[in-house]
Amino acid sequence: MQQSNGYQQQELLQLSNNINEDELPIVAEFDQPGWVFQDTWRDVPYDWSSLLENVLDASHVPFTHHKSISNRNTVGDYNMHLTEQVSEAGFKGLWKSGPRAGALGPQSSWFRPPCYMQHKIDAAETRGFESMVVVYAVPTGPGKCRLINRNAFRFTRGGLAAKLPALVMKLVPDWAIHLGTQVPLEDDQIFLHMGELEYVAARHQGKSPTQAYYLPSRADTYAVAFRRWIQQFGNGGPFGDAGGKSYLDKLAPRLTHKQLLDRYSQHTANCAQCQRALNQVKTARKLLAWGTGITGTLALFSAAVAVSTAVAAAATGGAAAASTAAAGTTVGPIASAFGSVSALLLQLLLTATARLAGVAASNDSATGFTAAAAAAAAAPTERALLWLLAAVAA
Asked: What is the Cα–Cα distance from 173 to 152, expressed in whole angstroms?
Protein backbone atom coordinates (compact mmCIF):
# COMPACT_ATOMS: atom_id res chain seq x y z
CA MET A 1 0.00 0.00 0.00
CA GLN A 2 1.46 3.35 -1.02
CA GLN A 3 1.80 5.83 1.82
CA SER A 4 0.06 9.19 1.48
CA ASN A 5 2.05 12.35 2.06
CA GLY A 6 0.78 15.67 3.35
CA TYR A 7 1.49 19.31 2.76
CA GLN A 8 0.08 22.07 4.94
CA GLN A 9 -0.19 25.77 4.20
CA GLN A 10 -2.58 28.48 5.43
CA GLU A 11 -4.20 25.92 7.77
CA LEU A 12 -5.08 23.68 4.81
CA LEU A 13 -3.75 20.14 4.59
CA GLN A 14 -3.40 18.42 1.21
CA LEU A 15 -3.01 14.63 1.22
CA SER A 16 -1.67 12.99 -1.90
CA ASN A 17 0.75 10.32 -3.07
CA ASN A 18 2.48 12.96 -5.20
CA ILE A 19 2.62 16.32 -3.46
CA ASN A 20 3.02 19.39 -5.63
CA GLU A 21 2.99 22.48 -3.46
CA ASP A 22 1.91 24.64 -6.40
CA GLU A 23 -1.32 22.64 -6.75
CA LEU A 24 -2.74 23.70 -3.38
CA PRO A 25 -4.61 26.94 -4.12
CA ILE A 26 -3.85 29.41 -1.39
CA VAL A 27 -4.77 33.06 -0.97
CA ALA A 28 -1.83 35.43 -1.36
CA GLU A 29 -3.59 38.14 0.69
CA PHE A 30 -3.78 35.85 3.73
CA ASP A 31 0.01 35.95 4.08
CA GLN A 32 -0.33 39.66 4.87
CA PRO A 33 -0.79 40.69 8.53
CA GLY A 34 -4.12 41.81 9.99
CA TRP A 35 -6.52 39.24 8.55
CA VAL A 36 -8.95 37.49 10.90
CA PHE A 37 -10.84 34.38 9.88
CA GLN A 38 -14.12 32.58 10.42
CA ASP A 39 -13.63 29.08 9.06
CA THR A 40 -16.12 26.25 8.68
CA TRP A 41 -16.72 23.07 6.71
CA ARG A 42 -19.49 20.60 5.96
CA ASP A 43 -19.99 17.37 4.03
CA VAL A 44 -22.81 18.34 1.69
CA PRO A 45 -25.05 15.98 -0.34
CA TYR A 46 -24.55 17.59 -3.73
CA ASP A 47 -21.84 17.69 -6.36
CA TRP A 48 -18.72 19.85 -6.18
CA SER A 49 -19.87 21.58 -9.38
CA SER A 50 -23.27 22.41 -7.86
CA LEU A 51 -21.49 23.91 -4.86
CA LEU A 52 -19.10 26.07 -6.89
CA GLU A 53 -21.80 27.23 -9.27
CA ASN A 54 -23.97 28.22 -6.31
CA VAL A 55 -21.32 30.21 -4.45
CA LEU A 56 -20.19 31.91 -7.66
CA ASP A 57 -23.78 33.05 -8.20
CA ALA A 58 -24.13 36.15 -6.00
CA SER A 59 -27.66 36.87 -7.22
CA HIS A 60 -29.20 34.02 -5.19
CA VAL A 61 -27.97 35.37 -1.85
CA PRO A 62 -30.67 37.99 -0.98
CA PHE A 63 -33.43 35.50 -1.80
CA THR A 64 -32.19 32.12 -0.57
CA HIS A 65 -30.48 33.64 2.47
CA HIS A 66 -33.08 36.27 3.34
CA LYS A 67 -32.84 37.09 7.08
CA SER A 68 -29.95 34.68 7.67
CA ILE A 69 -27.06 36.57 6.04
CA SER A 70 -28.86 38.89 3.61
CA ASN A 71 -32.10 40.69 2.86
CA ARG A 72 -34.22 40.58 -0.29
CA ASN A 73 -35.26 44.19 0.27
CA THR A 74 -31.73 45.44 -0.48
CA VAL A 75 -31.23 44.17 -4.03
CA GLY A 76 -29.37 46.18 -6.64
CA ASP A 77 -28.42 45.28 -10.19
CA TYR A 78 -26.39 42.17 -10.98
CA ASN A 79 -24.45 43.37 -14.00
CA MET A 80 -21.51 40.95 -13.79
CA HIS A 81 -18.88 40.76 -16.50
CA LEU A 82 -15.68 38.78 -17.02
CA THR A 83 -12.39 40.62 -16.65
CA GLU A 84 -10.44 37.50 -17.72
CA GLN A 85 -12.13 35.16 -20.17
CA VAL A 86 -12.57 31.44 -19.57
CA SER A 87 -9.34 29.52 -20.09
CA GLU A 88 -7.60 26.48 -18.70
CA ALA A 89 -6.54 28.73 -15.78
CA GLY A 90 -10.17 29.58 -14.90
CA PHE A 91 -11.69 33.05 -15.12
CA LYS A 92 -12.11 36.33 -13.24
CA GLY A 93 -15.05 38.70 -13.02
CA LEU A 94 -16.24 41.99 -11.58
CA TRP A 95 -19.56 43.06 -10.12
CA LYS A 96 -19.19 46.81 -10.22
CA SER A 97 -22.09 47.78 -7.95
CA GLY A 98 -21.51 44.98 -5.45
CA PRO A 99 -23.69 43.48 -2.70
CA ARG A 100 -26.45 45.17 -0.71
CA ALA A 101 -27.47 47.46 -3.53
CA GLY A 102 -23.96 48.90 -3.79
CA ALA A 103 -23.57 49.72 -0.09
CA LEU A 104 -20.25 47.86 0.23
CA GLY A 105 -18.66 48.71 -3.12
CA PRO A 106 -17.47 46.52 -6.04
CA GLN A 107 -16.93 42.79 -5.66
CA SER A 108 -14.35 40.88 -7.69
CA SER A 109 -14.54 37.11 -8.20
CA TRP A 110 -12.06 34.46 -9.25
CA PHE A 111 -12.47 30.79 -10.15
CA ARG A 112 -9.22 28.84 -9.96
CA PRO A 113 -9.47 25.28 -11.26
CA PRO A 114 -10.43 22.84 -10.27
CA CYS A 115 -12.01 23.49 -6.87
CA TYR A 116 -11.41 27.06 -5.66
CA MET A 117 -13.35 30.29 -5.86
CA GLN A 118 -13.19 33.63 -4.07
CA HIS A 119 -15.17 36.85 -3.78
CA LYS A 120 -13.39 39.97 -2.57
CA ILE A 121 -14.62 43.39 -1.50
CA ASP A 122 -11.94 46.05 -1.11
CA ALA A 123 -13.55 48.88 0.86
CA ALA A 124 -10.36 49.90 2.67
CA GLU A 125 -10.54 53.53 1.57
CA THR A 126 -14.30 54.03 1.72
CA ARG A 127 -15.38 51.95 4.74
CA GLY A 128 -12.15 50.84 6.42
CA PHE A 129 -12.21 47.10 5.73
CA GLU A 130 -11.49 44.34 3.24
CA SER A 131 -13.41 41.07 3.13
CA MET A 132 -13.02 37.78 1.30
CA VAL A 133 -15.21 34.71 0.93
CA VAL A 134 -13.15 31.69 -0.09
CA VAL A 135 -14.65 28.29 -0.88
CA TYR A 136 -12.89 25.01 -1.62
CA ALA A 137 -15.18 22.34 -3.11
CA VAL A 138 -13.53 18.96 -2.48
CA PRO A 139 -15.18 16.16 -4.51
CA THR A 140 -15.85 13.02 -2.43
CA GLY A 141 -18.14 11.17 -4.85
CA PRO A 142 -20.82 11.74 -7.49
CA GLY A 143 -23.35 14.08 -5.87
CA LYS A 144 -21.17 14.56 -2.76
CA CYS A 145 -18.43 16.94 -1.70
CA ARG A 146 -16.82 18.59 1.30
CA LEU A 147 -17.20 22.35 1.53
CA ILE A 148 -14.34 24.26 3.17
CA ASN A 149 -15.24 27.91 3.71
CA ARG A 150 -12.99 30.74 4.90
CA ASN A 151 -14.61 34.11 5.62
CA ALA A 152 -11.84 36.63 6.17
CA PHE A 153 -11.77 40.29 7.21
CA ARG A 154 -9.10 42.94 7.59
CA PHE A 155 -9.88 46.24 9.29
CA THR A 156 -7.69 48.98 7.89
CA ARG A 157 -8.54 52.08 9.92
CA GLY A 158 -6.13 52.99 12.68
CA GLY A 159 -6.66 52.78 16.42
CA LEU A 160 -9.66 51.26 18.16
CA ALA A 161 -11.78 51.25 14.98
CA ALA A 162 -9.55 48.48 13.59
CA LYS A 163 -8.56 46.69 16.79
CA LEU A 164 -11.96 46.31 18.44
CA PRO A 165 -13.81 44.39 15.65
CA ALA A 166 -10.80 42.13 15.11
CA LEU A 167 -10.58 41.45 18.86
CA VAL A 168 -14.28 40.62 19.10
CA MET A 169 -14.01 38.18 16.18
CA LYS A 170 -11.00 36.45 17.72
CA LEU A 171 -12.85 36.01 21.04
CA VAL A 172 -15.70 34.03 19.50
CA PRO A 173 -15.00 30.29 19.94
CA ASP A 174 -14.68 28.10 16.85
CA TRP A 175 -17.75 26.02 17.69
CA ALA A 176 -19.90 29.13 18.01
CA ILE A 177 -18.71 30.25 14.56
CA HIS A 178 -19.55 26.80 13.21
CA LEU A 179 -23.08 27.05 14.61
CA GLY A 180 -23.67 30.36 12.86
CA THR A 181 -22.15 29.36 9.53
CA GLN A 182 -24.15 26.13 9.27
CA VAL A 183 -27.39 28.11 8.94
CA PRO A 184 -26.78 29.59 5.44
CA LEU A 185 -25.48 26.21 4.27
CA GLU A 186 -28.80 24.69 5.30
CA ASP A 187 -30.62 27.44 3.41
CA ASP A 188 -29.12 25.97 0.21
CA GLN A 189 -29.18 22.31 1.09
CA ILE A 190 -32.60 21.13 -0.08
CA PHE A 191 -32.92 22.94 -3.40
CA LEU A 192 -29.33 22.18 -4.49
CA HIS A 193 -29.71 18.49 -3.69
CA MET A 194 -33.07 18.14 -5.44
CA GLY A 195 -32.26 20.50 -8.33
CA GLU A 196 -29.06 18.65 -9.12
CA LEU A 197 -31.01 15.54 -10.15
CA GLU A 198 -33.16 17.65 -12.47
CA TYR A 199 -30.03 19.11 -14.09
CA VAL A 200 -28.38 15.70 -14.56
CA ALA A 201 -31.61 14.27 -16.02
CA ALA A 202 -31.84 17.18 -18.49
CA ARG A 203 -28.21 16.68 -19.53
CA HIS A 204 -28.86 12.97 -19.94
CA GLN A 205 -31.60 13.89 -22.41
CA GLY A 206 -29.01 15.63 -24.57
CA LYS A 207 -29.44 19.21 -23.39
CA SER A 208 -26.42 21.48 -22.99
CA PRO A 209 -25.81 23.28 -19.65
CA THR A 210 -27.37 26.47 -21.04
CA GLN A 211 -30.39 24.46 -22.23
CA ALA A 212 -30.75 22.55 -18.97
CA TYR A 213 -30.83 25.90 -17.17
CA TYR A 214 -32.55 29.13 -18.12
CA LEU A 215 -29.70 31.65 -17.98
CA PRO A 216 -30.93 34.87 -19.62
CA SER A 217 -29.21 37.67 -17.70
CA ARG A 218 -25.82 39.06 -16.75
CA ALA A 219 -26.42 37.76 -13.23
CA ASP A 220 -25.75 34.31 -14.75
CA THR A 221 -22.36 35.29 -16.22
CA TYR A 222 -20.28 33.30 -13.72
CA ALA A 223 -22.54 30.22 -13.86
CA VAL A 224 -22.28 30.10 -17.66
CA ALA A 225 -18.50 30.62 -17.52
CA PHE A 226 -18.04 27.88 -14.92
CA ARG A 227 -20.06 25.31 -16.90
CA ARG A 228 -18.12 26.28 -20.02
CA TRP A 229 -14.84 25.61 -18.19
CA ILE A 230 -16.04 22.16 -17.10
CA GLN A 231 -16.94 21.22 -20.68
CA GLN A 232 -13.90 22.73 -22.41
CA PHE A 233 -11.11 22.13 -19.89
CA GLY A 234 -12.43 20.01 -17.01
CA ASN A 235 -13.27 16.83 -18.91
CA GLY A 236 -16.77 16.91 -17.42
CA GLY A 237 -15.46 16.65 -13.85
CA PRO A 238 -13.68 13.97 -11.78
CA PHE A 239 -16.58 11.49 -12.03
CA GLY A 240 -17.41 12.00 -15.69
CA ASP A 241 -19.72 14.25 -17.64
CA ALA A 242 -23.05 14.91 -15.91
CA GLY A 243 -24.71 14.25 -19.25
CA GLY A 244 -23.54 10.64 -19.38
CA LYS A 245 -25.72 7.73 -18.30
CA SER A 246 -22.96 6.36 -16.09
CA TYR A 247 -23.02 9.55 -14.02
CA LEU A 248 -26.80 9.42 -13.62
CA ASP A 249 -26.53 5.82 -12.45
CA LYS A 250 -23.92 6.78 -9.85
CA LEU A 251 -26.13 9.34 -8.13
CA ALA A 252 -27.52 8.14 -4.83
CA PRO A 253 -31.30 8.22 -4.19
CA ARG A 254 -32.57 11.62 -3.08
CA LEU A 255 -32.53 12.18 0.68
CA THR A 256 -35.45 13.22 2.86
CA HIS A 257 -35.63 16.74 4.27
CA LYS A 258 -34.69 15.38 7.69
CA GLN A 259 -31.60 13.67 6.28
CA LEU A 260 -30.62 16.77 4.31
CA LEU A 261 -30.67 18.90 7.45
CA ASP A 262 -28.82 16.40 9.62
CA ARG A 263 -26.16 18.74 10.96
CA TYR A 264 -24.72 16.16 13.34
CA SER A 265 -23.68 13.59 10.72
CA GLN A 266 -22.60 16.21 8.17
CA HIS A 267 -20.49 18.28 10.55
CA THR A 268 -20.58 17.82 14.33
CA ALA A 269 -19.73 14.10 14.39
CA ASN A 270 -16.38 14.78 12.68
CA CYS A 271 -15.59 18.24 14.07
CA ALA A 272 -13.18 18.23 17.03
CA GLN A 273 -14.23 21.68 18.27
CA CYS A 274 -17.96 20.97 18.13
CA GLN A 275 -17.57 17.51 19.67
CA ARG A 276 -15.62 18.99 22.57
CA ALA A 277 -18.21 21.72 23.08
CA LEU A 278 -21.06 19.21 22.86
CA ASN A 279 -19.46 16.98 25.50
CA GLN A 280 -18.87 19.97 27.79
CA VAL A 281 -22.46 21.11 27.41
CA LYS A 282 -23.76 17.59 28.14
CA THR A 283 -21.64 17.45 31.30
CA ALA A 284 -22.91 20.85 32.41
CA ARG A 285 -26.48 19.70 31.80
CA LYS A 286 -26.00 16.74 34.15
CA LEU A 287 -24.49 18.95 36.85
CA LEU A 288 -27.25 21.53 36.56
CA ALA A 289 -29.94 18.86 36.59
CA TRP A 290 -28.42 17.51 39.78
CA GLY A 291 -28.24 21.03 41.26
CA THR A 292 -31.83 21.76 40.26
CA GLY A 293 -32.97 18.60 42.04
CA ILE A 294 -31.16 19.58 45.24
CA THR A 295 -32.50 23.13 45.29
CA GLY A 296 -35.99 21.83 44.59
CA THR A 297 -35.71 19.46 47.53
CA LEU A 298 -34.46 22.31 49.76
CA ALA A 299 -37.36 24.50 48.66
CA LEU A 300 -39.89 21.81 49.56
CA PHE A 301 -38.17 21.10 52.88
CA SER A 302 -38.06 24.77 53.88
CA ALA A 303 -41.70 25.20 52.90
CA ALA A 304 -42.65 22.22 55.08
CA VAL A 305 -40.64 23.66 57.99
CA ALA A 306 -42.32 27.04 57.57
CA VAL A 307 -45.80 25.52 57.56
CA SER A 308 -45.22 23.26 60.58
CA THR A 309 -43.62 25.97 62.70
CA ALA A 310 -46.32 28.46 61.76
CA VAL A 311 -48.94 25.99 62.99
CA ALA A 312 -46.98 25.50 66.20
CA ALA A 313 -46.66 29.25 66.69
CA ALA A 314 -50.38 29.72 66.26
CA ALA A 315 -51.11 26.98 68.78
CA THR A 316 -48.64 28.01 71.48
CA GLY A 317 -47.84 31.62 70.73
CA GLY A 318 -44.18 30.76 71.43
CA ALA A 319 -41.45 33.11 70.20
CA ALA A 320 -39.08 30.25 69.35
CA ALA A 321 -41.60 28.68 67.00
CA ALA A 322 -42.19 32.02 65.30
CA SER A 323 -38.43 32.47 64.86
CA THR A 324 -38.11 29.04 63.27
CA ALA A 325 -40.99 29.86 60.92
CA ALA A 326 -39.27 33.07 59.86
CA ALA A 327 -36.07 31.14 59.11
CA GLY A 328 -38.04 28.67 57.03
CA THR A 329 -39.71 31.38 54.98
CA THR A 330 -36.27 32.95 54.32
CA VAL A 331 -34.63 29.74 53.15
CA GLY A 332 -37.58 28.88 50.90
CA PRO A 333 -37.34 31.82 48.48
CA ILE A 334 -33.54 31.51 48.28
CA ALA A 335 -33.76 27.82 47.38
CA SER A 336 -36.56 28.57 44.94
CA ALA A 337 -34.48 31.30 43.29
CA PHE A 338 -31.53 28.94 42.93
CA GLY A 339 -33.86 26.40 41.42
CA SER A 340 -35.19 28.92 38.89
CA VAL A 341 -31.68 29.98 37.84
CA SER A 342 -30.62 26.35 37.49
CA ALA A 343 -33.69 25.58 35.39
CA LEU A 344 -32.94 28.56 33.11
CA LEU A 345 -29.33 27.49 32.64
CA LEU A 346 -30.46 23.94 32.02
CA GLN A 347 -32.81 25.13 29.28
CA LEU A 348 -29.99 27.14 27.70
CA LEU A 349 -27.75 24.08 27.74
CA LEU A 350 -30.52 22.02 26.17
CA THR A 351 -30.72 24.66 23.45
CA ALA A 352 -26.94 24.61 22.94
CA THR A 353 -26.89 20.84 22.70
CA ALA A 354 -29.75 20.79 20.22
CA ARG A 355 -28.01 23.40 18.06
CA LEU A 356 -24.72 21.47 18.13
CA ALA A 357 -26.39 18.15 17.46
CA GLY A 358 -28.52 19.64 14.70
CA VAL A 359 -32.18 19.46 13.74
CA ALA A 360 -32.09 15.68 13.40
CA ALA A 361 -31.55 15.38 17.16
CA SER A 362 -35.22 16.24 17.70
CA ASN A 363 -36.19 12.57 17.47
CA ASP A 364 -33.08 11.13 19.09
CA SER A 365 -34.28 8.96 21.97
CA ALA A 366 -30.77 8.89 23.44
CA THR A 367 -30.71 12.64 23.88
CA GLY A 368 -34.35 13.62 24.13
CA PHE A 369 -33.74 17.04 22.56
CA THR A 370 -36.67 18.89 21.06
CA ALA A 371 -36.95 20.81 17.82
CA ALA A 372 -38.46 23.63 19.88
CA ALA A 373 -35.23 23.88 21.86
CA ALA A 374 -33.26 24.17 18.62
CA ALA A 375 -35.56 26.90 17.33
CA ALA A 376 -35.37 28.77 20.63
CA ALA A 377 -31.65 29.28 20.12
CA ALA A 378 -32.45 31.98 17.57
CA ALA A 379 -33.62 34.34 20.33
CA PRO A 380 -31.09 37.20 20.73
CA THR A 381 -31.00 36.97 24.55
CA GLU A 382 -30.26 33.27 24.46
CA ARG A 383 -27.61 33.77 21.79
CA ALA A 384 -25.86 36.22 24.11
CA LEU A 385 -26.06 33.84 27.06
CA LEU A 386 -24.85 30.96 24.91
CA TRP A 387 -21.90 33.07 23.86
CA LEU A 388 -21.04 33.58 27.57
CA LEU A 389 -21.28 29.83 28.10
CA ALA A 390 -19.05 29.35 25.07
CA ALA A 391 -16.43 31.68 26.52
CA VAL A 392 -16.30 29.52 29.64
CA ALA A 393 -16.33 26.23 27.70
CA ALA A 394 -13.57 27.36 25.34
From this structure: 15
